[in-house]
Predict the 3D structure of the following.
Amino acid sequence: MRDARHIWHPCTQMKDHEDFPIIPLVRGEGAKLFDTQGKSYIDAISSWWVNLFGHAHPHIVSAIAKQASSLEHAIFAGFTHEPAVRLAERLATMTGLPRLFFADNGSAAVEIALKLAYHYFHNQGQERPYFVSLTGSYHGETMGALAVGDLGLYKEAYKALLMRTLQSPAPKDRTIEAAIEAAEAMARLLHERGHEVAAVIVEPLVQCAGGMAMHDPEFIRRVRALCDQFGIFLIHDEIAVGFGRTGTMFAFEQAGIKPDLLCLSKGLTGGFLPMSVVMMREEIYVAFYEDYHPQRSFLHSHSYTGNPLACAAANATLDLFEEEEWITRNRQTAQKMAELLTPLVHHRKVREVRSKGMIAAVELHDLSDPRPARTMMRKALLQGVLLRPLGNVLYLMPPYVISDEELVKCVEVMKMVIDEVE
Ligand code: PMP
């Protein structure tokens, strides 16, 4: 296969593909992907949680094509363009956070948020070299993002290279008691070390890569209060949960609070092009607004900052949200998904079934299969469903356009792979 001669795929031990070839895709439509043989796969995980309105959605396709024929890309330092300005205005209105910094992937957005928080205090003569993050968290693969993450699978080998951070326990389940207990642990940590901390970073409501761990909104409400009490920034990483995934446009809405810095990516462009943004409170921007000084100014940059094609894709995605009541429609789809999974509660291999909006997870008891996720993924692919379990957690996080029949098939295949796994 030509692919295997040159390409190193992400999050993959390439040797695994000696006995299970990489699948060559040619097109996508709605919730389905099609390979070169014409076989279809229901994309039950929105292609790593990026796709919102289906593959090759014509409105986003034409917005990108139109933009490409006028301005495909231009340096964003000293220049601007309508797609970026329009997008910034819309996101500011939607989030209530008026300032925005562009980047081109989720990890980069996390790096920017961390750097801004640290730099803000540094400019005020305060050294606060620590960030507080949660057990079970995931914020990306670059060094700063790995440092605030907690998944050994990705982090362990690089531990010696990473900045030191402080860790606070995530709520151990979805109950309000667990939320309060975890917030109290963070309060104790901040009482001791708060003066050294620039920011707390959390994935609100659902820690996705950490196994779709779900928390009561009371947790982030209390974390917000702690950040206010200790004068620390609150960073919300809504890269996975933003844009309607948890039942509201943004997860923070469910707690009735606002973060100081908000990282968005993935669904931002409807899953068409890589882009991320960090939205922030005016106060943070204003603190950097002064006469040029090389050390005090925030000189972070990426070549593709504010890419017009990605901005056009994002604007087209927001058009789709405006055209139809997706948040309401998703509630129905989410309920259907949760109902379909309910019978699995009684499956002898199942520890818990949980869901939050358009995310539904089935956690299995410990398995003897050494790599259950790989085994289950392969079996599902053979049945025409793209599942990518996280260890022993299977989940559905489909495009919002998924049909009832497709959902039924996803759940049937899920049940089949659970039946068969050791
Ligand atoms: N934060 C969260 C919560 C994520 O889920 C991810 C990606 N899965 C990232 C950050 C990193 O985003 P990217 O893969 O675009 O770097």
Notes: DSSP finds 14 helices and 16 strands in the chain. The mean pLDDT is 97. The longest strand covers residues 350-356. The radius of gyration is 21 Å.
